[in-house]
Amino acid sequence: MIDLVRLLQELIRCPSITPTDAGVMDIVQKELTALGFSCERMVFGSGKDETQNLYAKKGSGSPHLCFLGHVDVVPVAGQNWDYPAFEGVIRDGRLYGRGAMDMKSGIACFIKALEGFSFNGTVSLLITGNEEDIPTYGTPAVLNALQDRNENWTAALVGEPGGTQQTGAVIKTGRRGSLNAKLTVTGKSGHTGYTHLAVNPVEALCDILNEVRKPLDNGSVHFEPSTLSVTTIDVNNPTPNVIPGTAFAKFNCRFNDCHSVDSLTELLRARIDPIAKKIGVSYVFETECMADVFFCTDKKFPALVKEAIKEVTGIDTIESTEGGSSDARFMVKYCPVLECGISGQGMHGANESVALCDLETQTKIYRRILEKFFDEKSP
Ligand SMILES: [Zn+2]
Q: How many angstroms is it from 19 CA to the middle of ligand 1?
């Protein structure tokens, strides 16, 4: 019998801060091997980029359900923890540690849910060691390699935490995209006593940012309105009587399906350009897409998952597209995908923890999803 709490503690005791493995993948592999899975380690990148990935598979043919998870965690430096972050201390019914919520608990619960489960078809797990940083050598690299072998999936479940509400209250059926932008404005430096001889890039930048910050859209059927946050304005000018030559700002857009990366970039450029021209500054506008927007258009798989949650918890689950991005954005190109995971506290913060009773609930939810999925889809 798998001891769920012990398994989660073992995973947490590996300080697997991205992309360090710290032995955590071996633990996952050992458990899945014992359950009859054939395990393949897929390592991509080299040097400091080297990323451990695991693709574990049991059964054959369709239907094929894939579970996606990550064993890496964000750092704890600069945070004040009441308990050691990598020990898995249990106090008052909660298990504390980095990854207790995001998302070693999801992996432990899914493994436990597989114990003693027989099915016709295929179950696979794609576990990556780099989700939290730029995941070039994580899930997208594995999916590329598997696609070359004609691997295909009926549906996929991502075990990311569902938020701070009750476990089961929310599943994620899409996520907004994330676009980073840097705007560098160059004017003409000069003496603050002779402003008419200079072109002030700081003031130009302020005017441009006011325009850029206007609403990007009114939201869509599945998404809230897109947002734009200015994250820094830098001038590096220590002298009070000098108008500097250059100033730059950075901002991050969380964009919905009203936009593509290209159309959003063009929209922003169209806001910048007329003001820059009017004031007489030149500018360089650079963007980098960190994650594209995605939405799972399939209706059946979310319905099945919501039914399973209702049967276990009695909750009417909400479909949401809030929050950051996840590896679901890579899987959505191959099959219907959604995120269903445990709820907890302190994700990415101090005292990250999970209630032991939530571990049990989430395991039951995963088990019920497995039962319904293979019942319904099997011939
Ligand atoms: Zn996560």
A: 13
Q: Which entry of 10, 31, 72, 257 is annotated as an active-site residue?
A: 72
Query: Which residues have a Cβ under 8 Å from the Cβ of 125 and sit 6 or more positions away?
Result: 28, 32, 37, 54, 55, 56, 57, 66, 67, 68, 69, 110
List the catalytic residue out of 10, 31, 102, 131.
131
pLDDT in tens, 333-366: 999 999 999 986 788 999 999 999 999 999 999 9
- The CATH superfamily of 4-175+293-377 is Zn peptidases (3.40.630.10)
Catalytic residue list contains 131: yes
- Please identify every residue whose CB atom is under 5 Å from ligand 1, which is an ion: 102-103, 160
Spatial contact of 2 and 105, defined as CB atoms under 8 Å apart: no
Question: Does 72 qualify as catalytic in the annotation?
Answer: yes
Q: How far is the CA of 160 from the centre of ligand 1 (A)?
A: 5
Ordered alpha helix ranges (H), 188-260: 201-212
pLDDT band of residue 165 (cuts 50, 70, 90) is confident
Number of Cβ atoms within 10 Å of the Cβ of 88 = 22
177-291: CATH topology is Alpha-Beta Plaits (3.30.70)
pLDDT digits (tens, 9 = 90+) for 224-267: 999 999 999 999 999 999 999 999 999 999 999 999 999 999 99
pTM of the model: 0.88
The domain locations on the chain are 4-175+293-377, 177-291
Picking from 127-131, 264-268, 289-293, which range would have the lowest pLDDT averaged per residue?
289-293
